[in-house]
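Table S2 (text version). Query chain:
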Amino acid sequence: MDVIVLVKRVPDPEAQIEVKGDGTGVTVEERYVMNFFDNLAVEEAIRIKEKVGGKVTAITLGPPSSVEVLRTALAMGVDEAILVEDEAFQGGDEFAT
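Corresponding C-alpha cell output:
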C-alpha cells in the first residue's frame, strides 16, 4: 500500500524567546520543526509500510527552507519527499495552509 503523508513545519515550541531590555518587544529564535501531529502520522505510515509493504511519500507546501521537515521525514523512514513550491504561493501565510 502506498501512503501519502502531508507534513508542515511549525515554529519550534522550545525556541528561545527573550524580552527586549527596554521592554518594547520580544526577540524570538527562528527555528522550525515538524508539526507534532504530522510526526505521529509519519510514524503510523511507516508502521503500515512495514506491515503490508508499499512506500511512504511525505509532501509539504512552503518556502525552500521547508525542506528540513522533509529531511526529518526521510530520516524517520519515508521513501520519497516532495516540496510543493510555486510563485503563486509567495507572500502567503504558510501557517494558515
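Notes on Table S2: DSSP finds two helices and seven strands in the chain. The two ends are 27 Å apart (CA to CA).
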